[in-house]
Amino acid sequence: MEKNGNAGKQKREARVVSQECLAGGIYSMWIEAMDMAAAARAGQFFSLYTKDASRLLPRPISICEIDKGQGRLRLVYRVAGAGTEEFSRYRTGDYITVLGPLGNGFPTEENPKKRAFLVGGGIGIPPMLQLAKELACEKQILLGYRDELFLNRELAAYGSVWVATENGSTGTKGNVLDIIREHGLTADVIYACGPVPMLRALKEYAIRHSMECWISLEERMACGVGACLACVCQSKEIDSHSHVHNKRICKDGPVFAAWEVEL
């Protein structure tokens, strides 16, 4: 996959089109940004700035959906602190400062005859929606939740959806690999976003089954453009910027071929 880093990124005010709560602490915000929507692709993210001058660093939020026709972007996020709590109070007509699109997305131009696992865990589920829309192949969508579901019905429009919950209240009790084992599912390639333990297990599964595997890493970020080295991960190759075995998740990622990084 060709890395485009942060090419085409912009920083400007975007109008909030709508906001809704999808589940406990999970919010969905549509923003209007014609040029940004035109440049965005599945797997990239945006940095959102608060209006509080004491909080200088932006909050990175992955792209859930892109509506290029209307020039809109959907960002689904979890309230995890004062910044995202502020975002959750925005309403139609408010404006928010955004920087993006940032990072490298998922490769979607692969052989359409491949069967794909699209795997999302927790707040790693939102990027799977735009990816599901862009991939022209057979898709089995595996979603891992703690308990409360969100986006599963929307994802069902693009492939077969299988759900796992930690307490077994819905679907398989356990995790996304338990779904695969319980239902005997198979695929040729994995696309995944979620917590590191999930991604590590999927990488090991892909190696055992000689599968192609693409993972999107979730990490705290500072600048969002690769300058500060606050969001590095260990890599097999030497990074041309830092000259050590590191990759900058915000610029070199957040999507990597699983073999590129150590988890």
Mean pLDDT across all amino acids = 89
Largest sheet: 7 strands, mixed
Radius of gyration, whole Å: 18 Å
Specify the structural class.
alpha/beta
Describe what this molecule looks like in 3D:
By secondary structure, this protein is of the alpha/beta class. Helices cover 17% and strands 36% of the residues. It has 6 helices and 15 strands. The strands form 3 sheets. It has a 7-stranded mixed beta sheet with strand order 10-9-8-7-11-12-15, sandwiched between helices. Strands 1-2-5-4-3-6 form a 6-stranded antiparallel beta barrel. A two-stranded antiparallel sheet has the order 13-14. The longest helix has 13 residues. It is globular, with a radius of gyration of 18 Å. The protein starts with 9 loop residues before the first strand and ends in a 6-residue tail after the last strand. The model has no long low-confidence stretch (mean pLDDT 89).
